[in-house]
Amino acid sequence: MRVAIAGAGAVGRSIAAELLENGHEVLLIDKAPTAISVERVPMAEWLLADACEITSLDEAALQRCNVVIAATGDDKVNLVVSLLAKTEYGVPRVVARVNNPKNEWLFNESWGVDVAVSTPRLMSALVEEAVSVGDLVRLLRFSHGDANLVELTLPEESALAGTQVGDVQWPEDTSLVTIIRGTRVLTPSREDSLEAGDELLFVAAQAREEQLEDLLSARRRPDGLV
After folding, report:
1. Which Pfam families is this protein grouped with (predicted)?
2. How far are the Cα atoms of 2, 82, 116 from residue 93, in angstroms, in the given order?
3. CA proximity to 106, closest of 140, 69, 76, 144
4. pLDDT in tens, 190-225
5. What is the distance between the alpha carbons of residues 47 and 42, in angstroms, rounded to a whole number?
């Protein structure tokens, strides 16, 4: 997979190094000469250019990229890069960094963004996840279909503890994608049972989040029946 990253700061370089380790082709683009540190990520391609300029993106051959990541520290730049990547070059997947949470509402399909990553939101979500059992925590927002990646740690008293995945009537527009149980990562099957303390990851429509939280957090009745 070929990936272009706009922004060769600490964030962009870290993403590039990770992708290169996983065998992908990476092009780092930055207009600041001081950001071009080839020795820090020697396996990447480097381009000294303004990623907001069509001529620069032509030189980068963005149409050959499977993914574009707008990772600069400027939200305006990230939005422009995302829009150009999607509308001018038809890049299948556009991921954009959100620096200021107040701008998060802009990072949607209207600006060509498929996935918006807000560092402040992720940090706060991880804090919430660490202290909240039974509360739904939104980890990531997907622009298409108004869906989110959400997490909930199944509480001890949940009515679903001990229930097989296939026996649960999940809300519409939700999908259980992963169960994290201790150090194990499970791809759920219908026969897998849910256990108290499981971290459950869902892709869910935003309109279904409250319904999903109510279902997972519902307490057992004293007689053990739902």
Report:
1. TrkA_C, TrkA_N
2. 11, 10, 11
3. 76
4. 999 999 989 899 999 988 999 999 998 877 654 544
5. 13
